[in-house]
């Protein structure tokens, strides 16, 4: 019996797992480690952590081997150079057999258990030697019956597991897969932190360095080269499959050695093979680390340039977006300002139009108040027994009277402007127009856009050579289309038809009547226009001139000669020119052959009206003028 059980004991694993009591509510994770290698555990948190360790020796007690608070960590002296705790990662380097035991990770502040790991450390060389040298010799001594019994027992135990045990086994397998992936992730992070490249990038650099520098920068041994080639095949092709690989010749020593080395790797994972390749190459050649460092610097420089380029492009894009946004805002602001200006201009025009309309109404009211009686008398004469025609005629006369008044005011203002330019010392000149019924008449100043109010009797006073003051009011002028009827009526009176010869100016003198206050005139021509103007000659200045001349004549003697009489005639003609004559209506060409021109003027005083019919511009034809002049109260 002793011989039967002895082989079974020898076939059991060399590394034993020691169970240490742990809290029932925390799941313990079992891990294995190889002596001389590195051990990496996931802590689960990057905050304050306290690591408790209890060895597999029953006599040993649990102790704190490392503490971490924030970025500061402290470890026992025996673990100080081998243990590091950073970024939720626990790393133990150069693992020893005495490191087997339970590692409990607790929160630094609350002392709550975060995770528990049960670690078993084995000596791979010792176990391999035992399996090769001892186990085969004793296995041969085991009877085949005992092997059959063991196989049956294992089969029955496998088939007899419960559903709960099976579920726990499946969950344990899933946890193992998760921990395996977590281990690979932690290992990849550690490699990238140490070398500056991911595991795949680092393996690519190592393979490139090995191909380019083998036999030049370094000379690995035969065994090292075999190991490197085998690891490369393990990474690129996977585990060795003798059935799929071609046969090697008996004398192909290199091929056989490479095949054996590849098969010796077994089912090593691709990541582990890449890591071993990098570690072996780094141990063989001291130039590999500077080579990787140079590529790391180049990579960092490229990354820096890439970030700078991205930053530059981002800033340019932001600047372009900001410029476009400002351009859109500027355009919107300009459009808004343009709309506001247009609205303001529209409001200003509306206000000006309203003011002009109001001013027009005021002027027309003043003019109509002045000429209402005269227009009614005239309309009654022209259209007797027809009130509608009289009303229509009065409206036409009032509108034409207003237009002529505005035209004459503009002409007088233009003359005043010319007078101001010729005489800068004069400050202002005013032309006064008829007032309204309320006693607030309107006037025009030298500024065409400004109108002021004045009283009806406010005159335009001009000082002449004498002391006589002349008061002239604005005339009222209008036209009417009944030219045929007018000429028919005038043909019956011989004195109402005159002929103005070619190149001549005919003047008709009409003195003021003592019973009258207004002068009315009407005229028309046959086929062509004629010039017309109205002037007023003051009787007072003429009387003064005649009396002064008589006094001078009485003082003179009759013994003077002809030369002296000639001088007296020249002086007399010069004095006659000084007679005060005021322009009421300037001489302008009138289309009197198409319409009847009419007008009225209030007596400024005693004197003579001069009606001038000007044909001086026509050198080849005479003009026939039909006119009528009368006065009213």
UniProtKB/TrEMBL annotation:
Listed InterPro entries: Acyl-CoA-binding_prot_CS, Acyl-CoA-binding_protein, Acyl-CoA-binding_sf, FERM/acyl-CoA-bd_prot_sf, GOLD_dom, GOLD_dom_sf, Golgi-PI4KB_interaction, Ig-like_fold
Annotated source species: Chanos chanos (Milkfish)
Function: Involved in the maintenance of Golgi structure by interacting with giantin, affecting protein transport between the endoplasmic reticulum and Golgi. Involved in hormone-induced steroid biosynthesis in testicular Leydig cells. Recruits PI4KB to the Golgi apparatus membrane; enhances the enzyme activity of PI4KB activity via its membrane recruitment thereby increasing the local concentration of the substrate in the vicinity of the kinase.
Protein name: Golgi resident protein GCP60
A cellular component term, taken from the record's GO annotations: mitochondrion
Record keywords, A-Z: Acetylation, Coiled coil, Golgi apparatus, Lipid biosynthesis, Lipid metabolism, Membrane, Mitochondrion, Phosphoprotein, Signal, Steroid biosynthesis
Lineage, uppermost ranks: Eukaryota, Metazoa, Chordata, Craniata, Vertebrata
Domain of life: Eukaryota
Membrane topology value: Peripheral membrane protein
Residues spanning the signal sequence: 1-19
Chain ranges of the GOLD domain: 487-631
Any GO BP annotation: steroid biosynthetic process
């Amino acid at each position: 019996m002793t011989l039967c059980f002895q082989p079974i004991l020898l076939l059991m694993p060399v590394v034993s797992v020691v169970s240490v009591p742990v809290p029932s509510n925390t799941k313990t994770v079992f891990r294995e480690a190889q002596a001389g290698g590195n051990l990496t555990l996931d802590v689960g948190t990057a905050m304050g952590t306290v690591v408790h360790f209890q060895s597999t020796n029953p006599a040993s007690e649990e102790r704190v081997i490392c503490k971490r608070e924030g970025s500061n960590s402290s470890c026992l002296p025996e673990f100080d150079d081998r243990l590091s705790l950073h970024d939720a990662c626990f790393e133990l380097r150069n693992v020893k057999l005495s490191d087997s035991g339970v590692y409990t990770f607790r929160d630094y502040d609350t002392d709550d258990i975060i995770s528990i790991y049960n670690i078993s450390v084995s000596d791979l060389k010792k176990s391999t030697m035992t399996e090769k040298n001892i186990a085969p010799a004793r296995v041969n001594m085991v009877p085949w019956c005992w092997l059959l019994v063991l196989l049956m027992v294992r089969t029955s135990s496998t088939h007899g597991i419960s559903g709960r045990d099976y579920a726990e086994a499946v969950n344990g397998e899933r946890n193992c897969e998760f921990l395996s992936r977590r281990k690979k992730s932690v290992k990849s992070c550690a490699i990238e932190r140490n070398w500056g490249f991911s595991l795949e990038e680092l393996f690519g650099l190592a393979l490139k360095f090995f191909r380019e520098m083998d036999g030049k920068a370094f000379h690995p041994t035969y065994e090292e080269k075999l190991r490197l080639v085998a690891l490369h095949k393990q990474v690129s092709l996977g585990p060795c499959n003798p059935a799929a690989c071609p046969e090697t010749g008996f004398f192909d020593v290199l091929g056989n050695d490479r095949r054996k080395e590849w098969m010796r790797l077994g089912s090593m994972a691709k990541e582990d093979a890449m890591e071993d390749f990098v570690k072996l190459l780094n141990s063989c050649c001291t130039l590999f680390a500077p080579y990787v460092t140079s590529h790391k610097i180049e990579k960092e420089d490229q990354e820096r340039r890439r970030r700078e380029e991205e930053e530059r492009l981002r800033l340019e894009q932001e600047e372009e977006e900001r410029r476009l946004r400002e351009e859109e805002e500027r355009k919107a602001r300009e459009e808004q300002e343009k709309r506001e200006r247009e609205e303001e201009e529209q409001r200003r025009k509306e206000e000006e139009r309203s003011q002009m309309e109001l001013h027009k109404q005021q002027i027309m009211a003043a003019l109509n108040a002045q000429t209402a009686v005269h227009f009614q008398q005239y309309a009654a004469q022209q259209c007797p027994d027809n009130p509608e025609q009289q009303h229509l005629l009065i409206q036409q006369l009032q509108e034409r009277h207003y237009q002529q008044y505005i035209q004459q005011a503009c002409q007088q203002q233009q003359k005043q402007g010319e007078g101001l330019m010729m005489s800068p010392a004069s400050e202002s000149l005013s032309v006064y127009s008829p007032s309204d019924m309320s006693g607030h008449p309107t006037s025009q100043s030298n500024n065409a856009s400004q109108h002021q109010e004045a009283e009806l009797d406010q005159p335009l006073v001009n000082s002449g050579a004498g002391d006589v003051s002349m008061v002239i009011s604005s005339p009222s002028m209008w036209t009417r289309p009944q030219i045929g009827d007018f000429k028919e009526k005038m043909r019956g009176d011989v004195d109402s038809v005159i002929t103005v010869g070619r190149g001549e100016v005919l003047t008709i003198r009409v003195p003021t009547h003592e019973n009258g206050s207004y002068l009315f005139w009407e005229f028309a021509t046959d086929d062509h226009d004629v010039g017309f103007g109205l002037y007023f000659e003051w009787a007072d200045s003429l009387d003064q001139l005649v009396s002064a001349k008589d006094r001078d004549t009485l003082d003179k003697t009759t013994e003077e000669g002809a030369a002296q009489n000639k001088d007296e005639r020249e002086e007399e003609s010069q004095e006659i020119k000084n007679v005060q004559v005021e322009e009421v209506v300037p001489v302008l060409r009138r289309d009197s052959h198409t319409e009847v021109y009419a007008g009225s003027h209030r007596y400024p005083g005693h004197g003579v009206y001069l009606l001038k019919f000007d044909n001086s511009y026509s050198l080849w034809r005479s003009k026939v003028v039909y006119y009528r002049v009368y006065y009213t109260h």
